[in-house]
Amino acid sequence: MISRKEAREILAGLTQNPSLLRHMRTIELVMEAYAEKYNENKDEWAIAGLLHDADYEVYPEKHPQIIVDQLQTLGEIKIAHAISAHYTKWNVTYETLLDKALLACDELTGFIVACCQVRPDGITSLETKSVLKKLKDKGFAAKVDREEVYKGAELLEVDLPEHITFIIEVLRSNREELGI
């Protein structure tokens, strides 16, 4: 398996946008925490989170195929498959818990970060009920596909409010690094 150091080198070769880098770091942290919760391989799950959008900045029209191909070449078939499945409209099957977790964490984590950005104290006092309320406001963070949020929680078989709370706690414990 590739190391996290190698994964960061791959990422550095493809992505420079600070916002996109922060997004991938947030997913890395949440995926690592879920791996721990589910007694899965923390490095594998964290790397999937870190690299899931690695090719988006340079190759948006080919995303995620460039990073998927690169990972397959390196023998990282499970991570590559999870990345190829992190959007339901790509019609890739969800074969593993890793596949489902990456889908469930991607859009929702980005949405939670957006919720933090409109609060004076960021994530410090963010509550699950506030996130649920914002999800109903289609004008807020309009680019976030709510259907993906709901489908991800359904596939992962987690209660949406519990899922939101879990992600908030992970992000809150890393708020200094993430600037939220």
Description:
The structure is a single chain. This protein has 180 residues and is mainly α. Helices cover 64% and strands 0% of the residues. Helix 5 (77-84) crosses helix 6 (97-117) and helix 6 crosses helix 9.
Report the portion of residues in β strands: under 5%
Mean pLDDT across all amino acids = 97
Major sheet: size, sense and barrel closure? none
Number of strands: 0
Low-confidence runs (pLDDT<50, min 5 residues)? none
- Number of helical segments? 10
Helical residue percent?
55-70%
Give the tags.
globular; 10 helices; mainly alpha; 180 residues; Hypothetical protein af1432; 0% strand; single chain
Layout of helices and strands, plus pairs?
Blueprint: H1 4-14, H2 18-37, H3 42-51, H4 65-73, H5 77-84, H6 97-117, H7 128-136, H8 146-156, H9 160-172, H10 175-178
Helix pairs in contact: 1-3, 2-3, 2-6, 2-9, 3-5, 4-5, 5-6, 6-8, 6-9, 7-9
Short synopsis of the structure:
The protein is mainly alpha-helical. The chain has ten helices and no strands.
